[in-house]
TrEMBL record:
The chain crosses the membrane at residues 32-55. Keywords: Membrane, Transmembrane, Transmembrane helix. Its main location: membrane. The lineage of its organism: Eukaryota, Fungi, Fungi incertae sedis, Mucoromycota, Mucoromycotina. GO terms for cellular component: membrane. It holds the Pfam family Pmp3. The keyword Membrane applies. InterPro entries: PMP3. PANTHER family: HYDROPHOBIC PROTEIN RCI2 LOW TEMPERATURE AND SALT RESPONSIVE PROTEIN LTI6 -RELATED, UPF0057 MEMBRANE PROTEIN ZK632.10-RELATED. This is Plasma membrane proteolipid 3. Belongs to the UPF0057 (PMP3) family. It is found in: Membrane. Signal peptide: none annotated.
Length: 57
């Protein structure tokens, strides 16, 4: 699966603010709430989760 321009925008958003990347990919659902919790607990776990959600095939 090729990476599109919208995926690049989501990845940049996920690095700057992890819940933003998840919101752009999935909307407001359980993944978004999990990512907010992970970002509050630690910035790096939030980024890892966001990148996982965006890049999951």
């Amino acid at each position: 699966m090729a990476t599109t321009a919208s995926d690049i925008i989501k990845i940049i958003g996920a690095i700057v603010l992890p819940p933003l990347g998840v919101f752009l990919e999935r909307g407001c659902n359980v993944d978004f709430l999990i990512n907010i919790a992970l970002t509050i607990l630690g910035y790096i776990p939030g980024i890892i989760h966001a990148l996982y959600i965006i890049l999951k095939f």
